[in-house]
Amino acid sequence: MTNSRPLRLAIVDDYAVVVAGVASFLAAEAIDVVETGASQAVVSDVDVVLYDTFGQVEGRGIDLQDFVRESDAQVVVYSWNVQPEMVRDAVAHGARGYLSKVLTGPQIVAALRRVVAGEVVVLTGDDETSVGGDGDWPGRSIGLSPREAEVVALIAQGLSNKDIAARAYLSVNTVKTYIRTAYGKIGVASRSQAVIWALDHGFKPDTLRTVDPALVLRSPR
Hints:
It is built from seven helices and seven strands, in the order βαβββαβαβααααβ. The protein has helices at 16-26, 84-92, 105-116, 146-156, 161-168, 172-186, 191-200; strands at residues 7-12, 31-37, 48-52, 74-79, 97-100, 121-123, 209-211.
């Protein structure tokens, strides 16, 4: 691939609002978003699979390598969570890049092109808890930060505080702080109320896949 044509990208996440936000943000850059969908193998001929980690439960779905079976595409993780342990685990499991969501569009494009050129690129940005970044997430419209929204998403999927802490590489006390502030913003007082609220406000994982019909799907090797 050369810089003469747009980079072809698939976005993978279980939440339609997250995928739409990322696609909208990248539309102004030199990127063709040709496929979006939930955590399932990509079928288009793309250069990079951008794996958004919002609300993902470790061990559920498919491994990073499974996104690009029988393909030369590279997997790049796109996350608010830039804990060193999580970055190391992602790279160890096949990711060729790990990008913070605080990065600008040009920074992301440059990083993705470096990945396609053969580098492993890790750019963790300045502050993974930033609420001023691009993209979208469930609950943003009522003031939930990315971390608060992710904790609510994991609660809605049935995880305990201990499980959430392990998944997000946070202390249990930090998880409790996010829960307390999130509950205040969404107006609930208990976990059961939080689950009901979440399922009514876009926190139920989606299974929708969209593919550009003009593209030829990848043939099995």
